[in-house]
Write a structure and sequence with these properties.
Blueprint: E1 35-39, E2 43-44, E3 48-53, E4 56-61, E5 68-75, E6 81-90, H1 118-135, E7 149-151, E8 166-171, E9 177-180, E10 187-189, H2 202-211, E11 223-227, E12 248-251, E13 254-257, E14 260-261, E15 270-277, E16 286-293, H3 304-316, E17 323-327, H4 335-342, E18 347-352, H5 355-364, E19 371-375, H6 378-382, E20 394-397, H7 406-414, E21 419-424, H8 427-439, E22 442-451, E23 460-467
Parallel strand pairs: 4-6, 7-22, 17-18, 17-20, 18-19, 20-21
Antiparallel strand pairs: 1-5, 2-3, 3-4, 5-6, 8-9, 8-11, 9-10, 11-12, 12-13, 13-14, 15-16, 21-23, 22-23
């Protein structure tokens, strides 16, 4: 599945803390493949729950807090073990028939909560987000009291299915398309959509059927990406499917149609995306149009672009005439509505490190004189006072899953913005950076969480931090 680009882990060792040593009894305990009877504890970040066996922590997937299960150990180590629940002895009332059986024990990654009822999935994610902010950011304020994860309108009616506008597939040794087994290079073959991958939108399934991607055998290792953008967060417009050109198949990064790859430099590699928001003070909604590289990053939930753009505008507050920094700005999802909100007297400075996304952003922001697009690593660009304003009224950042680095947070605080709007897809990274901003004199004043990835452990959050 398409995910955000990742950066290397940036954690630093604590001064004076000795390295962890393997525990002496590791050889005395069962190894990988053993079956354990476990009492399941709380949910943890990463889509698993915590259990203990003879004093050792075991992270168990495919279970729920309070259950008693039999679990197969999938890996062992000196600090913790991993296991998959393979038999439920005492079930939680929140357990349901899996919405995506192929993502069950021993199956593909990416659907680890499909056995959990949707309301319980959101409580799970709220608990994890709350726990990370308390433990890592040392925040225990009122924003966490009764924190809820907001459902996307229409998702409950659809059972949390049919929302992904992009999926990634890979051919296994037998040439069949599938996805990688969790924490493995092995490929699990999938049935044709939507049965094989029910998180995909009907338009993605229609694209796969029209192009016959599941009807053939592919060279092992071939990557097949299916992209079928939605119109303003809803179903694709009539005629915008495969026949209308709204969908695109990429084979190893090249456009593919009717059994042939078109590797010409001018071959179509972009898709049309949209986001509909209500600008501050506007009575009517405004729709922004984007052309985005099919292989680049874009929010995968059909409704996520408009929902997040609106959340960012609301969080930024009144920015008419303001200077706004839009960091990790991608193809310009937030840049365009922010430019409309600051007006002719304001400025939006967008910074992005991916060259393809910068090209998309230049095309999407063409003609907007109040927008400045800067290409390069965010930390490096922020260090250049001659190109980036030394002061900003508002900073918006939407970093990759690993979050912003300490030096990026320091550069943000150095510009003394009144408000920082942080869009995050990883609770641990968000909590770490909220902690850094707290050390720099900012306090968390607002927090919203959105269930943009039903049936997975992922959750999107929009946090607002203001100067103390």
């Amino acid at each position: 599945m398409t995910t955000r680009p990742s950066r290397p882990r940036l954690g630093r060792a604590r001064p004076g803390r000795p390295p962890r040593r393997p525990e002496a009894r590791l050889g005395d305990l069962p190894g990988a493949g053993e079956i354990l009877d476990l009492e399941i504890g709380p949910a943890a970040h990463g889509g698993h729950c915590v259990a203990r066996h003879e004093g050792r922590v075991v992270f168990v997937r495919h279970t729920l807090p309070g259950e008693r299960v039999r679990a197969r150990v999938t890996s062992t180590g000196s600090r913790f073990w991993r296991a998959d629940a393979v038999e439920v002895l005492e079930a939680s009332p929140d357990r349901v028939d899996p919405a995506w059986p192929a993502a069950g024990p021993g199956g593909v990654g990416g659907g680890e909560l499909s056995h959990v009822a949707l309301p319980a999935q959101r409580r799970w994610k709220a608990d994890v987000l709350t726990d990370q902010l308390r433990r890592i950011a040392r925040y225990d304020g009122p924003l966490l009291d009764g924190l809820t994860v907001e459902a996307v309108p229409g998702d409950d009616d659809a059972g949390g299915l049919g929302y992904r506008t992009r999926i990634d597939l890979v051919a296994g040794d037998d040439g069949r398309l599938g996805m990688h087994r969790f924490r493995s290079h092995d490929v699990v073959p999938l049935d044709a959509l939507p049965a094989g991958m029910p998180l995909a939108t009907p338009d993605v399934a229609a694209l796969a059927s029209a192009e016959g991607v599941f009807d053939r055998r592919w060279p092992p290792g071939t990557r097949v990406e299916l992209v079928a953008p939605a119109a303003d967060g809803g179903p694709a417009e009539p005629g915008a499917g495969p026949a209308g050109g709204g969908g695109l198949v990429l084979v190893d990064g090249e456009p593919w149609h009717r059994g042939r790859v078109d590797s010409r430099p001018n071959a179509r590699r972009t898709v049309k995306e949209g986001a509909t928001v209500r600008l501050p003070g506007a009575e009517a909604v405004t729709t922004f149009a984007y052309r985005v590289s099919a292989s680049g990053f874009w929010q995968v939930h059909r409704a996520a672009p408009g929902l997040l753009a609106q959340a960012v505008l609301d969080a930024a507050g009144g920015v008419s005439g303001a200077t706004v920094l839009d960091l990790y700005s991608g193809a310009g999802l937030f840049t365009l509505p922010l430019a409309a909100a600051v007006g002719e007297s304001g400025t939006v400075v967008a910074v992005e490190g991916d060259a393809g996304a910068v090209r998309d952003a230049r095309r999407n922001a063409h003609g907007l004189g109040r927008v400045r697009l800067l290409a390069g690593d965010v930390a490096d660009v922020l260090s250049g006072r001659d190109t980036v304003p030394g002061q900003a009224d508002v900073v918006v950042l939407d970093p990759p899953r690993a979050g912003a680095r300490r030096d990026v947070v320091a550069a943000i605080a150095d510009r003394d913005p009144e408000r920082v709007v942080y869009v995050a897809c990883d609770p641990a990274a968000l909590a770490r950076d909220v902690g850094y901003l707290g050390q720099a004199g900012y306090r968390l004043t607002a927090l919203r969480a959105f269930d943009l990835f039903p049936h997975t452990h992922h959750v999107e959050a929009v946090a607002v931090l203001e100067r103390r």
